């Protein structure tokens, strides 16, 4: 039997050295962002997976810790707690308790009312006097009394938007009735303020007249780059400038107004002693031209018609036969082959090609004789103009006039369509004399108003009166004004 050989001796220091050398050669935690797919990368992935598995296995978990539930608050305890918080303030103190009762605080049986309420209201656009009072808390009975008291001075719906109403509502006997109106003050007109006060339980009205200077306002200046900008620089309101340009455009093209021309605008103007002003309509439009005839236009009422007259007393041209639609003539009056019926027959009017829905205008003043469906004409309107003359408008998509209605030249009476015997949207326009179709191009309506006698004398006197009004400041050096690109002018009032 052989002797057993002794086990080899292993020095621990040598073993640790070998392990250390192996660890230096083998990287167990490599950067997984590099060398993806290599043996070293898979070794690092295995190490990361093992560490994550160990972390999950050794996690303690998150089970809830049992505890006794909080007792629910009763209504009384809840209100007590809530009264100590800011919640009542945020909710408008609807808890009824603003603080807990103490020796210094005792609850009230009911909240006392204010002896009176002072407020200010205003009439809005499209609003009415009665609705404004109702919104302010005035009872319907008091509002009705107010309307009865001021009815002679304030017509329904005539108070301007923005009119302020100073209102005082008094004490009421019980909470079940509205507060009585104790005081109301407002500006009924530029020349009249009104106050209503309750005296011995009865509303009484006091009218306060206000002095008003009604001298017209005159604005003069020199045209620079633009008449509109020049007049605005001189203080003319935009609405007045637009009216001025419309009047001038009836006499000359606007583009003929040149730099250096002088404009003269006179407006209806009222100034109250309180400082309030009211700018009215354009009364006079003048244009001094460097080239061409100067213009003097005055607004004048002749009979029942108000219109613009030249300085010589010649008024506007009325009733001129105008284009009934914005378009071009596509078919004239006369014999033609009908595009639908296929045979030649009389075309008793003029066709104007226009886009669908374009407005159709009355060619001159008249009365609507017919409005509705009319055979091959489709939707059709016929106007009677007097003297046996009438006009017809056919193939409308929609009618905007009614039988018996009086229309003015240029008023919209319908819209272009393709109803009836029509191949596309257009207007078929006809002219009648004593009920018989005639060529629309054969008649022109031209009438001019002319003042004579006493009417002409009164007109010229008014024109001289307005042109004698003073202007506070104006330049006498048009060249400098034109260089400045605007107007050096000013507004003034006086005689």
List keywords for this structure.
alpha+beta, extended, Nuclear Transport Factor 2, Chain: A, Glucose Permease (Domain IIA), single chain, 7-stranded antiparallel β-sheet, about 20% helix, 10-stranded antiparallel β-sheet
CATH topology of the domain at 217-317 and 468-493: Nuclear Transport Factor 2, Chain: A
If you average the pLDDT, what whole number results?
A: 80
For the report, how would you describe the main beta sheet?
10 strands, antiparallel
CATH architecture of the domain at 217-317 and 468-493: Roll
Count of distinct strands: 26
Estimated helix fraction: 10-25%
SS strand fraction: 25-35%
What structural class do you assign from the helix and strand content?
Answer: alpha+beta
Distance between the termini: 156 Å
Q: What is the top-level CATH class of the domain at 217-317 and 468-493?
A: Alpha Beta
Number of helices: 10
Keywords: Hydrolase, Metal-binding, Metalloprotease, Protease, Zinc
Domain M23ase beta-sheet core: 345-440
Organism: Sphingobium phenoxybenzoativorans
InterPro entries: Cell_wall_metabolism_enzyme (IPR050570), Dup_hybrid_motif (IPR011055), M23ase_b-sheet_dom (IPR016047)
């Amino acid at each position: 039997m052989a002797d057993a050989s002794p086990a080899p001796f292993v020095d621990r220091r040598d073993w640790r050295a070998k392990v250390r050398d192996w660890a230096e050669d083998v990287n167990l935690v490599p950067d997984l962002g590099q060398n993806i797919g290599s043996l070293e990368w898979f070794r690092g992935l295995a190490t990361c997976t093992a560490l994550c598995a160990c972390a999950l296995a050794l996690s303690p978990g998150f089970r809830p810790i049992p505890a006794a539930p909080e007792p629910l608050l009763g209504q009384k305890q809840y209100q007590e707690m809530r009264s100590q918080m800011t919640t009542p303030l945020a909710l408008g103190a609807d808890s009824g308790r603003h603080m807990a009762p103490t020796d210094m605080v005792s609850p009230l049986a009911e909240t006392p009312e204010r002896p009176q309420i002072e407020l200010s209201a205003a009439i809005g656009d499209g609003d009415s006097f009665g609705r404004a009072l109702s919104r302010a808390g005035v009872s319907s009975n008091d509002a009705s009394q107010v309307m009865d008291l001021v009815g002679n001075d304030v017509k329904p719906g005539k108070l301007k938007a923005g009119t302020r109403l100073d209102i005082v509502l008094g004490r009421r006997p019980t909470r079940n009735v509205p507060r009585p109106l104790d005081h109301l003050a407002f500006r009924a007109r530029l020349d009249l303020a009104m106050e209503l006060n309750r005296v011995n339980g009865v509303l009484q009205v006091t009218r306060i007249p206000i002095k008003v200077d009604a001298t017209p306002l005159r604005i003069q200046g020199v045209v620079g780059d633009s008449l509109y900008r020049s007049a605005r620089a001189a203080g003319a309101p935009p609405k007045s400038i637009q009216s001025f340009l419309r009047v001038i455009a009836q006499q000359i093209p606007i583009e003929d107004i040149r730099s250096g021309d002088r404009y003269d605008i006179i407006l209806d103007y009222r100034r109250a002693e309180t400082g309030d002003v009211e700018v009215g309509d354009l009364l006079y439009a003048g244009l001094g031209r460097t080239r061409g005839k100067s213009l003097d236009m005055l607004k004048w009422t002749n009979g029942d018609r108000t219109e613009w007259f030249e300085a010589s007393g010649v008024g506007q041209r009325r009733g001129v036969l105008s284009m009934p639609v914005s378009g071009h003539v596509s078919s004239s009056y006369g014999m033609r082959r009908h595009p639908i019926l296929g045979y030649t027959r009389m075309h008793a009017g003029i066709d104007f090609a226009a886009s669908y829905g374009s407005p159709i205008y009355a060619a001159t003043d008249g009365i609507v004789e017919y409005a509705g469906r009319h055979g091959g004409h489709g939707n059709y309107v016929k106007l009677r103009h007097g003297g046996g003359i009438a006009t017809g408008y056919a193939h409308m998509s929609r009618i905007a006039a009614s039988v018996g209605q009086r229309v003015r030249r240029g008023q919209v009476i319908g819209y272009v369509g393709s109803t009836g015997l029509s191949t596309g949207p257009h207007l078929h326009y006809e002219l009648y004399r004593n009920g018989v179709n005639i060529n629309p191009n054969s008649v022109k309506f031209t009438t001019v108003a002319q003042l004579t006698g006493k009417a002409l004398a009164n007109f010229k006197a008014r024109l001289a009166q307005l042109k004698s009004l003073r202007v506070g400041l104006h330049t006498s050096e048009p060249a400098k004004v034109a260089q400045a690109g605007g107007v050096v002018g000013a507004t003034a009032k006086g005689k």
